[in-house]
Amino acid sequence: MTQSRVVSGIEEYRKKTPASFEFSKVSRNVMPGGVTANIKFFEPYPVIMKKGKGAYLTDLDGNEYVDYLLSYGALMTGHGHPKVMEAIRNQMEEEGTLLFGTPHHLEVEMGKKIQQLYPGMERLRYTNSGTEATLLSIRMAYAFTEKYKIAKFEGHYHGGYNQVLLSVNPPLNEAGPAKNPNSIVESKGVEPYNIEHTIILPFNDLEATTEILTKHKDEIAAVILEPVQGGFIPAEQDFMEGLRAVTKKLGILLIFDEVKTGFRLGLGGAQKVYGVTPDITALGKVVGGGFPVGIVGGSKEIMDISAPTAASDVFDNSQSKRSGAKDVLFHSGTYNGHPTILAAGLATIEVLEQEIDNVFETANQLKSGIRELFLQKGINVQTIGMGSIFNFIITEKEKIQSYRDLQESEFGLRKDIDYHLLARGIYNKPLNRYSLATVHGEKEVDRTLNALKKTLNSLF
């Protein structure tokens, strides 16, 4: 593979975004690293946006981009969809408040809709993010099984907290055997306790996973996984069915983290696609219509361990002499089930019920176009993913099934291409998956493929 580069992608990017560079210097004096979330940063500095509409973002320099990040997949109807915006305004104007602080009708309306789409969620609770949803899922599993270890898969991400910030992106020289991975801490501030209490499994390897789970069956409360790793490496059908069978046999709960895949693989998520029902499901992102939200649901038997009684309120001092709080899983949050968010979420689902097939068709057109352009240059590429999310991987491997398979791809070339695309008005964080929305169409696909064609022609 011969390249004749004159200007690197990062150099092109710098030339197009001087205002973002200047702003990033100021922002570092306000926030650590200049960002409020580490995931928003990329070298040498992130693009600073000032406007979004439909499929497009506009930055401080006035550059317009086709947006494929879509807030890491959250905006499946794009920026400022009219029906979502109308639902937000109606809720605020008709109900006269942004927050009741009490139960309200939208909690039940959204809940019934979710139960229709995810029948395994017989009871559910709202949270304020996907991270909170997975955290509550794990607490539910601890409380229900009275076991206090979890198992997660190498390469899977479930949020920024201690139990799961292990072996998300481990160095291969530390990761251990492929069939029995080490538990590698991924952040400062993670107690060593979690190395022993978070067991790492090899994704898409049922035999090795079964062996590890069997060995630790009396300690593990639950297995948590992304049915599609990173939003783009799918589980094999046999693996999913086998995992469901072995967890049932061993008395281990199965948690699907569908924060990325919920609605993006179909309205019923990955569990509908695979025909596999987990014990607990965690949702987030798309269901908030652009607002922060999470939902945890599962069987009535599991979820009802959080049902309050008169004697189970940790804040009710009058019950202190006969408190039963320790007998109930305490879950609370002032903003849980926020009415404006649920109004936006219901409107989002209504749009997707009409237009989701169009999103999948557009994604397939883009994937096909990307493969064709690389083929013309004699470069092996795979467009991996399902539904409305995918990634393109430059690799000689025939199939990508796990984190370790992915490490054999050409990250350096892919990153350089991503920076060139940024300079040509195609927005995604370098190396990130592509997410599509109802607002992406033929115009956006053509613009993207033209930018990729120019990039490849400049490189090869």
TrEMBL record:
What Pfam families does the database record attribute to this sequence?
Answer: Aminotran_3
Q: Which domain of life is it from?
A: Bacteria
The keyword Nucleotide-binding appears for this protein: no
Per the UniProt entry, the signal peptide is none
In terms of PANTHER family, this protein maps to: GLUTAMATE-1-SEMIALDEHYDE 2,1-AMINOMUTASE, GLUTAMATE-1-SEMIALDEHYDE 2,1-AMINOMUTASE 1, CHLOROPLASTIC-RELATED
UniProt similarity note = Belongs to the class-III pyridoxal-phosphate-dependent aminotransferase family.
Enumerate the UniProt keywords alphabetically: Aminotransferase, Pyridoxal phosphate, Transferase
InterPro entries xrefs:
Aminotrans_3, Aminotrans_3_PPA_site, PyrdxlP-dep_Trfase, PyrdxlP-dep_Trfase_major, PyrdxlP-dep_Trfase_small
Q: Which GO terms describe its molecular function?
A: transaminase activity
Protein name, as recorded: Aspartate aminotransferase family protein
Q: Which CDD domains match?
A: OAT_like
Q: Which cofactor does it need?
A: pyridoxal 5'-phosphate
